[in-house]
Amino acid sequence: MKNSLIALGKDALSSLRDLLPIVIVISVFQVFVFRDSASNLMALAVGGLLVVAGLTFFIFGLRLALFPIGEGLADSLARKGSTFWRIVFAFFLGFGTTIAEPALIAVAAEAAEVAAAAEAIAPSVEAKDSYARNLRMTVALAVGVALVVGVIRILANWSLPLLIIGGYILVILLTAVAPKEVVGVAYDSGGVTTSTVTVPLVAALGVGLASSIKGRNPMTDGFGLIAFASLTPILFVLVYGIVVQWS
Amino acid sequence: MELIVTSLQFIVDSALDVLPIAVFLFAFQRLVIGGPMPNRKQIAVGFLFVVVGLGFFLVGLEQTLFPLGRLMAQQLTDPDFLQEIAGIGASALVWQDYYWVYLFALAIGFSAALAEPALIAVAMKANTVSGGAIGVWGLRVAVAIGAGIGVSLGCFRIITGLPLHYFIAAAYLVVIVQTAMAPKLIVPLAYDSGGVTTSTVTVPIVTALGLGLAEAVPGRSPLLDGFGLVAFAALFPIISVLAYGQIAVLRERASTSAPDERDKAKEENHAL
C-alpha cells in the first residue's frame, strides 16, 4: 500500500513536470506581453488539475496492469513463439495500444471539428464521431502493420535505413496525389502515435525479439520498430484520403 | 454538475478505448501462453485507474489545453496587438510582424521538450549505454533546440501558407545526408528522439496553437494549413541530435592535432 502511494506520487510529479513548462511559458506571455490576467482562471485551474490527475492515474494504471502483462507476453512470445503467433501478436499490439493512445483520441476529435467547420463533412455529431473513429482506425491499422513489417525485418534481417528512406520517398510521392485537406493530419499522425501507451510495449517486443536472435543489437532493433510506427500512419492516412476522395 | 456529467461520459468512452488492448492481452495470455492470469486483483485495479485517468485527462484537455492553445494563437495574432507592436494595420502585415508567435512557439517547444519525462529517461539510458560518452544535458538541450525550432518554423509555415511537404521533404534530405556523416553511435538515438518529444501533453497544445493560428491569420484555413506542427516538432530534433553528434566530433578533432584515421571510431565515441 505504502509502495503504491509512493509510485502514485512519483507519477504525479512526472505529470506535473510535463505540464509545468507550458503553464510557465503561457503565464509569462500573459503577464509580460499582453499585460493581461486570464479572465477564467478558475476554469483553467480546474482543467489543469484534471489533466495532471488524469495523466497520473492513467500512467499509474498502465504500470499496474497493462505494462506487466504486455511486456511479459511480448518477451515470452518474442523468445519462443512461432513466427505466425509473433506476427499476429505484433499486429494486435500495435492496433490495440494505438486505439488507447490519449493524444490520438484528442487530435482525431479536433480534426473532425475542423473538417466539419470547413464543411468537408456534415456538422452533425454522428458525422464527426465517425470521421474521428475512421481516422483512429486507419492510424491503428497502420501501427499494426508497422509492427508486423518491423518484426519480419528483425527476423529476416532487412536493412532498416533502406526501408525507412524508401517509406519517406513513398510519403512524398503519395502527398502529390492525396487531397490537400488530409496532408497535414497525415503528417501529424506519425508523431502522435508514438506516445505513452505504445512506446514501452513496442520497445519490449523489439528488445525481446532482438535478444532472442543471435548477433542482433537489442537497442537498435527496439528503436527500429518505433521508427516504423511513426512512418506508416502517414502513408495510411494519405491512402485513406485518396480512397475517400475517389469514392 | 455539468463537469461531473461530462467526466462520466468521457470515462465511459475511455473504457471503450481501452477495451481492445485489454481483450487482446487476456486472449493471448489464455490461448497462447495458457494458464490463468497472475495477479488478478492488481490488474483489475490497474485497468480501473487507466480508464478513469484517461477520462479525466480528456476532460481536462477539452477544458484547458485546447482552449489555452487557441487563446494564445488569438492573442498573438490579434489586430490590435499587432497594430501596437508593428505600428501598421492588419492589411499591411507581413510574416516578420508575427515575431511574437515565433518566439512563443520556440519557448513552448523548447521548454516542453526539456522537461519531458520520457526524454529524461531516454537521455539517462543513452548515457549509461554509451558509457558516459553521451551527456544527459547535451542530449536534452539538443532535442529541446530541435523541438523549439521545429514548432517555430511550423508556425512560420502556417502564417505564410507555404506547402507542408516542401519543408518535410527538405528536412528528410538533411536527415539522410547527416545520417551518412554523423557518428554511428548517435544515429538510432537521434531517430528515436523525434518521437519522444511529442508527448501526450505537448501534442494537444501544439495542435491547438496551429489550428488557432490558421483560424486567425487572414487567408489561411484550419483544414488546409492548421495541421503539421506536430510533424515539425517530431522531425527537427532528429536533425539537431545528429548535429550534436557531428559538432562533438568536430570539436574533438580541432583540439587534437592531426588525428590518425585508425583512431577515428574511437575518437567519435570519445567526443560525445
Could you outline the blueprint of secondary structure elements for this entry?
The complex is a heterodimer of chains A (about 250) and B (about 270).
Chain A lengths: L1 H32 L7 H40 L2 H17 L2 H16 L7 H32 L3 H18 L2 H14 L4 H15 L5 H29 L1
Helix pairs in contact in A: 1-2, 2-3, 2-8, 3-5, 3-8, 4-5, 4-7, 5-8, 5-9, 6-9, 7-9, 8-9
Chain B lengths: L1 H32 L6 H37 L2 H8 L12 H17 L1 H13 L6 H25 L3 H18 L5 H11 L4 H15 L5 H4 L3 H27 L8 H8 L1
What can you tell me about this protein's structure?
The complex is a heterodimer of chains A (247) and B (272). Chain A has helices spanning 2-33, 41-80, 83-99, 102-117, 125-156, 160-177, 180-193, 198-212, 218-246. Chain A is mainly alpha-helical. Chain B is mainly alpha-helical. Helix content of chain B is 79%, strand content 0%. Chain B has 12 helices and no strands. The longest helix of chain B is centred in the first third of the chain and has 37 residues, at 40-76. At the A-B interface, helix 1, helix 2, helix 3, helix 4 and helix 6 of A face helix 1, helix 2, helix 4, helix 5 and helix 7 of B.
Beta content of chain A: under 5%
Q: Which residues of chain B sit in consecutive blocks of at least 5 with pLDDT less than 50?
A: 258-262
Low-confidence stretches of chain A: none
What structural category arises from helix and sheet content of chain B?
mainly alpha
Shape of chain B: flat
Assembly context of the chains: heterodimer
* Whole-number tally of structural domains of chain A: 2
Run of helices and strands of chain A: HHHHHHHHH
Outline:
With about 250 residues, chain A is mainly α.
Descriptive keywords:
heterodimer, A: 247 residues, B: 272 residues, mainly alpha, 2 domains, flat
